[in-house]
Design goal:
The chain is mostly beta strands and 123 residues long. 0% of the residues lie in helices and 49% in strands. The radius of gyration is 13 Å and the shape is globular.
């Protein structure tokens, strides 16, 4: 019954912006940490950001200052605002639900994943 549906991906030029959304259902959204991760072809899955139930946030170094994660508990939605996009941001972006109220950027902390939304940054 748990569902995570990503949206908002698309094509952006370098320096542009996109906002990704992850609509969650099937669980008490407020009680769980949520993350965004991404994977480019031929590369390892990379953790982008995590937001805990209490609002504590972490980012991977490569997106600090450019991306912002947020959550709207009333809408059971987590967002990733991506600014100053670079070609290396091109990837399939996944939303993930953690097992607990707090989580790290470890695959072992998560039990559900969305199907992803594609982000392509190219001029």
């Amino acid at each position: 019954q748990v569902q995570l549906v990503e949206s908002g991906g698309g094509l952006a030029q370098p320096g542009g912006s996109l906002r990704l959304s992850c609509a969650a259902s099937g669980f008490t959204f407020d009680n769980y940490a949520m993350s965004w991760a991404r994977q480019a072809p031929g590369k390892e899955l990379e953790w982008v950001s995590v937001i805990n139930s209490d609002g504590n946030i972490r980012y991977t170094d490569s997106v600090k200052g450019r991306f912002t994660i947020s959550r709207d508990n009333a809408k059971s939605t987590v967002y990733l605002q991506m600014n100053s996009l670079k070609p290396e941001d091109t990837a399939l972006y996944y939303c993930a639900k953690a097992k607990t109220i707090r989580a790290s950027m470890s695959v072992y902390d998560y039990d559900y994943w969305g199907r992803g939304t594609q982000v392509t940054v190219s001029s």
